[in-house]
Structures are given as structure tokens and as C-alpha cells.
Prior knowledge:
The chain has 205 residues and is mostly helical. It has two domains: 7-89, RNA polymerase sigma factor, region 2, helix turn helix motif (Rna Polymerase Sigma Factor, Chain: A, Orthogonal Bundle); 108-204, Arc Repressor Mutant, subunit A (Orthogonal Bundle). It contains nine helices and no strands. It has helices at 10-14, 18-37, 43-60, 70-89, 134-137, 140-151, 155-166, 171-178, 182-204. Helix 2 packs across helix 4, helix 4 (70-89) packs across helix 8 (171-178) and helix 8 (171-178) crosses helix 9 (182-204). The radius of gyration is 20 Å and the shape is globular.
Amino acid sequence: MSRRPDDSDLAALKAGDEAVFQALVQRYHGPLMRLAVGYVRDRSAAEDVVQETWLTCLRSLDRFEGRSSLKTWIFGIALNVARTRRRKDARVLPFASLFRRDDSDSSAPTVDPRRFGSEGKWRTPPDDWSNVPESHVLSRETLDRVRSAIDRLPPRQREVIILRDVAGFDAQAVSAVLAITPENQRVRLHRARAAVRKVLEEYLR
């Protein structure tokens, strides 16, 4: 069974222990790929992001002081590499971004207020998807809609939903990687999920 490295392996990694590094790669390659795919649409580009992440980790290992967990440090590097690659690959400003609400507008409601009645109850509640065939929900077209909706989110919301729902991080890890408060993480995730759900509601009707 391959060794599962944790923060206690830092000294071995700095000493050049290849077995520990290989175990680290095996442990985090999948989550790193899921994170990268959330930023770049091409799998080959995502693989480049992951490879550059590991190379950066090796080059920066001597400067890592262990103030955060090893996992947080690695994914922080991956996030920066993915951001850079996304900016590099962006050739044309998406037309939809001209109408995108600024993420700093914290007063804007997550759900259209018109969907609530005077007593605060749902006037038009969220759609019930229980009767939608599973094959339709999991279809390639549906997944493409989800990815497109995530791609159109404001950057801060997009990062949180990618880390939580694509890479599979828990709330504490996301807060650490993005250096934000748990409450800020919760608000961004709520808004991101609400926006994506709205797109799916319209598509699955």
C-alpha cells in the first residue's frame, strides 16, 4: 500500500524522498485535476496546470515553513497557476461579462425578490427535480450547462464553488486556501450555488 504523506512528511520531502513525493502526487492528483478543469476547459490544459503545480511545489519546498497544512499550500499554488493559465488563455472578453453584477455588491439578493410573497413565503418555489429522469440530469448537455453557469460566475464565487463542489474541499479548507473568513466562504458559496441552480431550473423545466 502506498504511503499517504501528511504534514509530518515535510522533512522527508525537503530531503528529497522520492517515495514520499510520489505518494503525495497519488493522493492529490485527482482533486488537483478537478480543480484545474474548473478553470480551463481543455483537459490537456488542466494537465499542464497540475504539472506546473507540482514543479512549483518542488521549486518552492525549501521556502515552505509549515504555517498552513501541506494540502492547503499545494492547492493554493494550484489555484494561482490555474488563475494565471485562465488569464493567459482568455482571448476575448465574454459578451455576458459586460452585464455581470460586481461580486462586491453584497447587498444584491441571491434570489429574485419577486419569487417571494408579502409574508416572505415562496410565490414561485424552486423547481422540484424529482420527476426529471436521471439520465437527463446527468447528460453531457446538462453538465455542460453547469460548467457554463460556473464559468459565468463572478471570480470570487466561481473559485469557492469550484473548490467546494468540484474539487471536494470542505468549508474550512476553502477558507484557508482563499484566505477568507468562514462566513465569507459561506455567502459566496450560497450565491454561486443559487446562480447555478437558477440556470438548471430554466433548462430542466
